[in-house]
């Protein structure tokens, strides 16, 4: 017997009962970004492998261990995108939309791919919403990104469940000086480091700061601090960011060990973290990458951005039971018709109502059926009201109107008055 077909491990179907919450979350974010003046960009999910090696860094865990890379029929090495920033930078360079200092405030949404060990909140195909801003170099735009996320958490009702962590990595020069001091310190404690940190010490020593190993964390207590190596420009930038967050009233925690897992970050880095999702605590993260565009072949262009994980934020809404009641209901009104003449009249009536109430979720029964079976389907649909068209209603050119979720008697509504009645009941009821 052949093996049953199933999805690849770590790549999940999003089923019909789940998609309303996804659409609610995505729609909330999209409206927010529209209001702040961001424009959507859509990039391919497959890029040349070299793009990610040049941008993310060849010695990062993502490039070394996690990318889905393959050779196509032309012999080119291609990779399913593991993150969105590199692809967005490639797109703006290719199309020249940041040339001449043009400010671009962009956002994107879609799947990313990393070959990680699947667990709750961490998958091999996962979805992100990301923002990238080019040619703005002040702390004001860094603050705007964080302020937008703070407003989003408020709209979703999760402000009390998240915490903002901040750090500054300085310029490449100050970070280089810090790296030397950190390597010197860690090398003196080499035997106390875990195996993974010993490897990172040779390739990407700043990532040692991000270790979860308790013994290595104990070593790091007395390690040099990045703040002591910041140049004046980076220090002023960071103070400007903190001042703006304080002016708006956004609480934050300074985390000197926050380095992020990508080579291209500089100056501001931040993470929104939660303790509601177990080990997968980061729900949104980003920072500044002023040297990335030049590193990828463009002219010097400042950049800053972030990405948020849709799976984790949807999971948080479910965990905290913050799903709005209206999105769990897919149907407002269900029309039941009995007999071919009523079915034809019902179709025409439904389309007239849709013309007048384009946002009404009106489902017309399909597959005929008895009075009992159609009402059973109406109830299962979750609709607030059922409309009834039978011989009596046809003769009087009315429709039966029956509440399904609350008190109220069935009434008869004239066909030409139905849309107005539904507008009152569905909106106010």
From TrEMBL:
Keywords: Aminoacyl-tRNA synthetase, ATP-binding, Cytoplasm, Ligase, Nucleotide-binding, Protein biosynthesis
A Gene Ontology molecular function term of the record: histidine-tRNA ligase activity
Subcellular location: Cytoplasm
Catalytically driven reaction(s): tRNA(His) + L-histidine + ATP = L-histidyl-tRNA(His) + AMP + diphosphate + H(+)
Enzyme class: ligase
EC number per UniProt: 6.1.1.21
GO term, biological process aspect, one: histidyl-tRNA aminoacylation
Every Aminoacyl-transfer RNA synthetases class-II family profile domain range: 1-358
Main subcellular localisation: cytoplasm
Record has Protein biosynthesis as a keyword: yes
InterPro entries found in the cross-reference section: aa-tRNA-synth_II (IPR006195), aa-tRNA-synth_II/BPL/LPL (IPR045864), Anticodon-bd (IPR004154), Anticodon-bd_dom_sf (IPR036621), His-tRNA-ligase (IPR015807), HisRS-like_core (IPR041715), HisRS/HisZ (IPR004516), HisRS_anticodon (IPR033656)
Cellular component terms per the entry's GO annotation: cytoplasm
SUPFAM superfamilies: Class II aaRS ABD-related, Class II aaRS and biotin synthetases
Residues holding L-histidine: 83-85, 114, 128, 132, 260, 264-265
Subunit architecture: Homodimer.
NCBIfam families: hisS
Matching HAMAP family: His_tRNA_synth
Family indicated by similarity: Belongs to the class-II aminoacyl-tRNA synthetase family.
Protein name from the UniProt record: Histidine--tRNA ligase
